[in-house]
Amino acid sequence: MHVRGHTPGAGCSTADACLPARAGIGFKPVHFTDLMGDPHPPAFIEVHAENYMGAGGAPHHMLSVLRERLPLSLHGVGLSLGGAGPLDPVHLARLATLVARYRPAAFSEHLAWSTHDGRFFNDLLPLRYDAASLARVCRHVDQVQERLGLRMLLENPSTYLAFAHGTYSEPEFIAAIVQRTGCGLLLDVNNVHVSCHNHRHDPDAYLQAMPLHAVHEIHLAGHARDAGSDGEALLIDDHGAPVDEAVWALFQSVLARTGPVPTLIEWDTHVPSYDLLREQATRAQASIDAAACAKAAA
Amino acid sequence: MSAHDCVQSSLAAALRAPALPVAGGDFAHGGGEAKRRMAVHRNTFIVSLVDALADAFPVSQALVGEPFFRAMARERVLADPPRSPVLTDYARGMPDFIAAFAPAARVPYLADVARIEALRIQAYHAADATPLPHAAYHALLASPSSLHRTRAVLHPACAWFRSPHAACTLWEAHQDLSRPSDAALEDVDATRAEDTLVVRPGLDVVVQCLPAGALELLDALRDGLTLGHAFQQARHAVPLLDDGALFAVLVVHGLVVALDPLPEP
Q1: Would the CB atoms of A128 and B7 count as touching at under 8 Å?
Q2: Do B86 and A114 touch (CB under 8 A)?
Q3: A53/B26 Cβ within 8 A
Q4: A271 at the B interface (CB within 8 A)?
Q5: Could you report the per-residue pLDDT of A45-99, keeping only the tens digit for each?
Q6: Which residue of B has its CA nearest to A82?
Q7: Residue by residue, what is the 3-state secondary structure of chain A?
Q8: What fold, for A23-297?
Q9: Interchain CB distance below 8 Å, A77 and B9
Q10: What is the percent of chain B with per-residue pLDDT over 70, rounded to a whole number?
């Protein structure tokens, strides 16, 4: 599909609005009162689309009130873009309803599959990076952009398994999708760290090969470490801890290449206090500010 | 089917059957390492869904204890994974699973307590509607004959059911405690049949044990009978009906959102 050009890093995904190139947080209902009472709220919020697919009630009440105050990023976790089967038209319709209702500044989904033969596994499962799956993902991304009437952002995955017969590296595969579909990139820096660690790749080389010009949003999150019996630790993307120091460092090196980008702190399990979440966002904001100054000085 | 579909099919099958070996040739890792990495996905699939069910059914979990509930939830996740990424839909099927789960038969009221918890989730996410203002009831009662010519449109966020057990009282006994497992159930006669209403007139979900006849009244209203005929039907089922108490159920819980007068004959 034809997509109009956007300024890299400006966070524009839909025709209506852009995410500010500042720090935001993943919204949890338990933080509603704290967020509403915060005199310096984060620059935007992100929600999982699947939690707002009921007809009414408190979830929509909260989201409507927040949407009046803050830009919104809508993040899908169940579309199964990489799935062997066709996209679920019912789920696409639910997403279209949400997009029409809340007019989010961004919509993103994952490079993964989660549904097979009509069963949903509530996990982001890995793709083999070959020509057949590239064609399929591109077809699905086109379909989403067409149906929702926006330029979607595709998120790079955390992976554990590596396939024996892949023909593309992950950055090559993602670059090809971006090039063919015109979608933007949601660069999850924690996922870069986790995957590169798990597959013994160099994160700098990985980033070098990524289409960073298409980054419109960044995710930062915590991960867990599974020590393993032979001492070879696996990192597990569980969104259940503060952002790791190694991920903060990688974030800065990304910003040095992209300039300021809308950046989200994700924390989905063992949800922390609002203050702790806010603290992480403040730290992300400081890095974004430093990147803006460096850009101005250059 | 392309080779790639086979990879996804084999991964999906391996997720559902933890005893199944993963197809080693598909992966760049050796057997033991592939198994370990596959376990990350199995763990996410099973544990995230068991956690979601445990969060959705705190009272059911308290009734049988966490280890039993989680083992039961795991059986369901493996036997019947969600059919939709909207997980509130998955909670809806849990009471029926419990009712058919043989090891839970020793707690005969468990499925019906779970039914209350599932209905609460449905009501929480159901469509919004504004309950009928009290003045509308006053106008209606000012001319009682109009009751036989007026149907009631019920709130979209309400449901009710009859249990052969004291499901409502058992559920209530677990509320407002620091831990649901602290509930004192010694004085509850679990064998007493009860009718339960779950409704969300505003943003908060209410669970209410219904007085005799209310279930028949609500069934009749849902089936499109006029208010007058619905009360008659309730009176037929419960001869010593307390009309006032039943009317109060409708008014207090905002169960009616509109009146639908039949055309004059």
Answers
A1: yes
A2: no
A3: no
A4: no
A5: 999 999 999 999 999 999 999 999 999 999 999 999 999 999 999 999 999 999 9
A6: B8
A7: CCCCCCCCCCCECCCCCECCCCEEEECCHHHHHHHHCCCCCCCCEEEEHHHHCCCCCHHHHHHHHHHHHCCEEEECCCCCCCCCCCCCHHHHHHHHHHHHHHCCCEEEEECCEEEECCEEEEEEECCCCCHHHHHHHHHHHHHHHHHHCCCCEEECCCCCCCECCCCCCHHHHHHHHHHHHCCEEEEEHHHHHHHHHHCCCCHHHHHHHCCHHHEEEEEEECCEEECCCCCCCEEECCCCCCCCHHHHHHHHHHHHHHCCCCEEEECCCCCCCHHHHHHHHHHHHHHHHHHHHHHHHC
A8: TIM Barrel (3.20.20)
A9: no
A10: 96
Asked if the Cβ–Cβ distance from B36 to A56 is below 8 Å, we say no
Chain B: closest CA distance from residue A177 (Å): 18
> Measured between CA atoms, how close is B263 to chain A, in angstroms?
31
Task: Write out chain B residues lying below 8 Å of A133, CB-based.
Answer: 4
Ranges of each domain in chain B: 111-261
- What is the overall mean pLDDT for chain A? 93
Query: Which residue is closest to A124 within chain B, CA to CA?
Result: B41
Confidence of residue B77 (pLDDT cuts 50, 70, 90): very high
Percentage of chain A with pLDDT > 70? 94
